[in-house]
Amino acid sequence: MGILGKIFTWWDGATIGTSLYSARHGTKVGEDHLGNIYYRGKDDRRWVIYNGSNDASRVPPEWHGWLHHTFDEVPESFLPPPRIWEKESAPNLTGTPQAYRPQGALEAGGRRAAATGDYEAWSPDAS
Questions:
Q1: Is the pLDDT confidence value at 100 over 70?
Q2: pLDDT, tens digit (0-9, with 9 covering 90-100), for 13-34
Q3: Beta bridge partners of residue 47, listed in sequence order
Q4: How many Cβ atoms from other residues are within 10 Å of residue 47's Cβ?
Q5: Integer Cα distance of 59 and 67 in angstroms
């Protein structure tokens, strides 16, 4: 997309305006393992510039806590090392071709299983 993409698009990384604002008014605080960069402003405003698509589910839990003022310290400075049983965070796949589609969903063919017969519709005439 080139320069026009950086000027007009917001869904894949930062626009030129956001990059300039971050460089001028923000202080880089850290970067996560996905390449997202976190900033803090003079008024303690906090934001993230995503490395790739702008999807909030791509923010790791420790940085989510920092962004929402749950704690003030940068996550790397005080969090314990990850446990062996902890899973890596996964992006939200809703709205993508990889999203879960249950049997009967239109995107999965639109055929649902036949009713078992244990359902009886309510009728206002029946007493």
A1: yes
A2: 677 778 888 888 899 999 988 8
A3: 39
A4: 15
A5: 9
- 3-class state of residue 48 by DSSP: strand
List the structure tokens of 124. 């206002």
Strand arrangement, sheet containing 46-49:
26-31, 37-41, 46-49
What is the CB-side half-sphere exposure of residue 72 using CA atoms within 13 A?
1
Q: How far is Cα 23 from Cα 41, in angstroms, rounded to an integer?
A: 10
Positive or negative CA dihedral for 8, 11, 16, 18?
A: positive
Q: 40 pairs with which residues across the strands?
A: 27, 46
Cα gap 49→63, rounded to integer Å: 12
The pLDDT tens digits of the residues spanning 24-66 come to 889 999 998 888 999 999 999 999 998 888 888 888 888 999 9
For residues 118 and 71, the model is more confident at 71
Look-up of token digits 């993508």: 96
- Contact assessment for residue 32 and residue 39, using Cβ atoms and an 8 Å cutoff: no
